[in-house]
Amino acid sequence: MKIGKKTLMGMTDSELKAVVDVLGMPRFTAGQIARWLYTAHVKSIDEMTNLSKANRARLSEEYTVGAMEPADCQRSVDGTVKYLFPTAAGKFVETVFIPDKERGTLCVSSQVGCKMNCLFCQTGKQGFEGNLTAGDIINQIYSLPERERLTNVVFMGQGEPMDNLDNVLRATRILTSAYGYAWSPKRITVSSVGVKNKLRRFLDESDCHVAISMHSPLHEQRLSLMPAERQMPIADVVELLRQYDFTGQRRVSFEYIVFDGVNDTQAHGREIVRLLDGLECRMNLIRFHAIPDVALRTTDDRRMEALRDYLTSHGVFTTIRASRGQDIFAACGLLSTAHKNQN
Predict the structure, then answer these.
(1) Is the pLDDT of residue 180 over 60?
(2) Cα-Cα-Cα-Cα dihedral sign, residues 287, 288, 290, 291
(3) Helix, strand, coil percentages, rounded to 5, for the chain
(4) Is the separation of the CB atoms in 111 and 155 below 8 Å?
(5) DSSP letter at 259?
(6) Which terminus of the chain is more exposed, N or C, with fewer CB under 10 A?
(7) What mean pLDDT comes out for the span 239-246?
(8) Is it the case that residue 211 has pLDDT exceeding 90?
């Protein structure tokens, strides 16, 4: 990609219309460009063959498609593939493709590094290096070798999506709009630790599913694991969610990494039940993927199953998420950290 040129990928229909207006091209050209981008996935403007040669030349003077292939990948014995994608700013982010029978889920990143600094997250140890553009986010799908196998996208990779909300919303609009990928919002889940004001805006402006990183129902303990608890306690997050309807197609779920001897007791189960009482939701229990220099350990299957059974029997639909890609360290942050340390 040539330095200095602007990127077409990640532009909405209104932004593409503004581009063709400035360049003196017919208005309908914007729709043609959108189809070449989000349906045909072209790599260059020269491939947009129903644009006149003069218009392609005019467009190429200032713009590039912006497609960037993965710089590295790791493949697991279970079929999971972790990709390292370059960004327009010259950084790198991780994207994980998870095949499962008829489903293909892609875990995308929204930032380079992260400000949240959760104790158990390798990305947080990197520090914050910048927001991804909408183009950077879309490129993780656009340039994915397994793109045609995708059924779902989850914003659960590197970064806090609500901390880069404008670009996340722009990307989800492209994914769900008729001019873009035309996906149902049900195919997209956006995660958050709970960011004050931003979470409400997301709930108001998007119909995508939302997943909240809980990891403990107890204020002091969650604060020790997740500094974001100070700005928006989990009790406030749940209270906000109660103001929205999740009884239809839109879903809210809670992510709960289970740490041995930390948050895996029946007392935690009782507090989760109390906290979520009456809220239509589901709980996903997740095995901890160990990271360097962190003393937290993965709990055993027996304790995870006991917690799952307790929650389910008390009205909180709970599943244990299958661990994938453990042999390639599929937990986000490890591959990009290694790449960063080599440079």
Answers:
(1) yes
(2) positive
(3) 40, 20, 40
(4) no
(5) B
(6) C
(7) 97
(8) yes
Predicted local distance difference test score (pLDDT) of residue 94: 95
Percentage of the residues of the chain whose pLDDT score is greater than 90: 89
Provide the whole-model pTM: 0.93
Q: E strands within 142-186?
A: 152-155
Q: Is the pLDDT of residue 201 over 50?
A: yes
Identify the pLDDT of residue 178: 97
pLDDT tens figures, 1-19:
445 899 999 999 999 999 9
Question: Residue 5, SS3?
Answer: coil
Handedness of CA 122, 127, 129, 135 (dihedral sign): positive
Q: 158, 333 in Cβ contact below 8 A? A: yes
Q: Which of 294, 222, 226 is nearest to 263 (CA)?
A: 222
**Could you list the active site residues?**
94, 332
Rounded-to-integer distance, Cα 175 and Cα 171, Å: 6
Report how far residue 3's alpha carbon sits from residue 67's, in angstroms, rounded to the nearest whole number: 14
Alpha carbon distance 343, 338 (integer Å): 9
User: Where do we find the tokens 């103001």?
Assistant: 243
Round the CA-based radius of gyration of the chain to a whole number and report it: 21
pLDDT value of position 126: 84
Phi and psi, residue 147, nearest 5°: -50, -40
For 215-241, what is the mean pLDDT?
A: 97
For residue 173, give the amino acid letter.
Answer: R
Instruction: Please report which confidence band the pLDDT of residue 329 belongs to, taking 50, 70 and 90 as the band edges.
Output: low
Query: In what side-by-side order are the strands of the sheet with 92-100?
Result: 72-75, 81-86, 92-100, 103-107, 152-155, 188-192, 209-213, 252-258, 282-287, 317-320
Q: In 126-242, which residue ranges form alpha helices assigned H by DSSP?
A: 134-142, 165-176, 198-205, 219-225, 234-241
Residue whose token pair is 């498609």: 65
Q: Are 159 and 132 in contact (CB under 8 A)?
A: yes
Nearest CA to 317 out of 279, 277, 283 is that of 283
